[in-house]
Amino acid sequence: xxxxxxxxxxxxxxxxxxxxxxxxxxxxxxxxxxxxxxxxxxxxxxxxxxxxxxxxxxxxxxxxxxxxxxxxxxxxxxxxxxxxxxxxxxxxxxxxxxxxxxxxxxxxxxxxxxxxxxxxxxxxxxxxxxxxxxxxxxxxxxxxxxxxxxxxxxxxxxxxxxxxxxxxxxxxxxxxxxxxxxxxxxxxxxxxxxxxxxxxxxxxxxxxxxxxxxxxxxxxxxxxxxxxxxxxxxxxxxxxxxxxxxxxxxxxxxxxxxxxxxxxxxxxxxxxxxxxxxxxxxxxxxxxxxxxxxxxxxxxxxxxxxxxxxxxxxxxxxxxxxxxxx
Length: 326
Ligand code: SF4
Known about the structure:
four-stranded antiparallel β-sheet, globular, five-stranded antiparallel β-sheet, 12 strands, Uridine Diphospho-n-acetylenolpyruvylglucosamine Reductase, domain 2, Enolase-like, domain 1
């Protein structure tokens, strides 16, 4: 491993200054992905700025807004009574991710910052535009079973790996950020990026900007929800396809729906058109199938992942059926 310096600022401004003024500095919290990236030689920061001393761990319902500090642990968020009661979709998605040991270390902010698990990204002997812009993409002509079917570019077809973020985009979360130019709020759907011509950029943060919290509005999606994760083994595996489904039902009529998918795009993939197709309809398998087919109408699979289109349709139907019958 390369040499690096390590500092532990005691206040937020000092942490932001340390990263914004040093091109080679990175924030570190739980380190569950960052250290893997360093050990495999994908990145080599010269300075790590440990933010674990910052007071960003609170989980609190303020009126109709749930405030989750960026350093709240994934396991603490998943087990929090207010989260389980008012945002069960988020709790389910968190518990589908990684392992208990990792959830005990991983933070909410770090979960959002984790990088793709594309095997070519981690193999420094292979070309990868995300790791080294302009070098090519090993996955496009290689093994691309795990890769994107939506929103990819001719530079990168990687997928975003988080489960938590799929629930957060479905629930209209907002990301609170603090940086050298002040504070700003970013709608969750705008936080992560599609690859386009800059696949090296995963999100819309500027240099030195620190995620301080995620906020969620309370919503009618407190009962009829389901997070479905389809993967190659029962635990500790990334999604081939995942679905966050939430329904607001009146008797058996869908007043409104929220749907998002993981494992299919470079960012958490919200299914707005499928949501619109469900609004006002009765909660039947036939209507769920119509919405699922709407969801995949613009899918563009690659050589080894054409199966993901049918898998997505079936997963959306199953997730909606389970949400409707909770
Ligand atoms: Fe790299 Fe993206 Fe291609 Fe994977 S899909 S090799 S991350 S450029």
